[in-house]
Design goal:
Layout: E1 3-10, H1 17-29, E2 34-41, H2 48-56, E3 62-67, H3 73-83, E4 88-91, H4 103-111, E5 116-121, H5 129-145, E6 154-161, H6 162-169, H7 178-184, E7 189-194, H8 208-222, H9 225-255, H10 262-295, E8 302-306
Parallel strand pairs: 1-2, 1-4, 2-3, 5-7
Antiparallel strand pairs: 3-8, 4-6, 5-6
Length: 309
């Protein structure tokens, strides 16, 4: 039978590991597939690794990787895909907000011939109003300016055929916006709707500012519009300045020399100064990403591996 790899990133989630696996095992047992479960401990400071090792006593198909420190969820997913031996893989969160029962529908789509299958959330009832608004805004902006089309409501809960896994593993970049990479590689893609489950334990590790930075990482990885837009802004300001200069010349010729206003002068200086600093900030963000790529450091280091040959 084909082999299914289930990839689970963990970070300080020892309390919910047993419950997660108790829901996952029955689902995997009904798929008529061999399976392996790859658990990536992303530098947890609690007993996550020890809990995973304990659970492995009951199923040897549980494989565990422990990072030397916290490298981030995107890196943990990358590591899982690089270690996966399956003909197909499912990536999902380990806090049960991605219900394991949806895996059956993802596999069914795969058997129909789709090589990338997203689990798309049907609503955002579990998010606060501010986060719902910002999420919709991100997907709207991404669709407008990005070089790829990513379905709204999709996340890291998806199924990847071996061909898609190999394609993603071949990408060398270090700014790993996995949702974007999954869409970028192409192949036949489909979606399966699902409702987000309640978080089993703990709390989210993504603060508002971390989410904001994550969003800009995604936009900068798949669009150069934030850079090009400052060319247009500079052209618009130059045209406006030229028009204002012509107005001043005509006004001087008609009405004579007038004492310039302090307020209008300060507004103009502050506006242009702010515009320049903002443009430099955007350019700096792209340069920082170039700096990271040029250094070519490894994405992660593994402290321990359990269950791998």
């Amino acid at each position: 039978m084909p082999l299914l790899s289930v990839i689970l990133p963990f970070h300080n989630e020892s309390a919910g590991i047993h419950h997660l696996l108790q829901r996952l095992y029955p689902v995997l047992g009904q798929l008529d597939l061999n399976y392996e479960i790859i658990c990536v401990d992303d530098g947890s400071s609690d007993a996550t690794f020890e809990s995973l090792v304990h659970e492995r006593q009951f199923d040897q198909r549980l494989k565990i990787v422990r990072f030397t420190r916290n490298f981030g969820k995107e890196t943990a997913l990358t590591c899982g895909l690089q270690l996966a031996k399956g003909d197909v893989a499912v990536t999902m969160d380990s806090d049960l907000q991605h219900p394991p029962e949806v895996i059956a529908a993802l596999v069914e789509k795969w058997r129909e011939g789709f090589e990338v299958v997203y689990a798309a959330r049907v609503d955002r009832k579990t998010d606060n109003p501010c986060r719902r608004f910002l999420s919709r805004a991100f997907y709207t902006v991404f669709r407008v300016i990005a070089d790829i089309q990513m379905p709204e409501g999709v996340g890291d809960f998806c199924l990847l055929d071996r061909k898609a896994i190999n394609a993603i593993n071949a990408l060398p970049e270090r700014n790993r916006f996995m949702k974007g990479l999954t869409s970028w590689v192409g192949f036949r893609q489909s979606t399966v709707p699902f409702e987000v489950g309640a978080r089993d334990s703990g709390h989210t590790n993504f603060s508002f500012f971390r989410l904001l930075r994550f969003a800009f990482d995604g936009l900068s990885a798949f669009s150069t519009l934030p850079l090009r837009i400052w060319t247009w802004c500079g052209a618009a300001v130059s045209v406006a300045a030229l028009a204002y200069a012509l107005f001043l010349i005509l006004d001087t010729l008609i009405s004579g020399v007038d004492v310039p206003g302090y307020a209008s002068l300060m507004v103009g200086i502050l506006f242009l100064g702010g515009l320049q600093l903002l443009s430099l900030g955007v350019i700096g963000e792209y340069m920082a990403r170039i700096f990271t790529e040029v250094k070519a450091r490894p994405l992660y280091f593994i402290s321990e591996k359990v269950g791998f040959e």
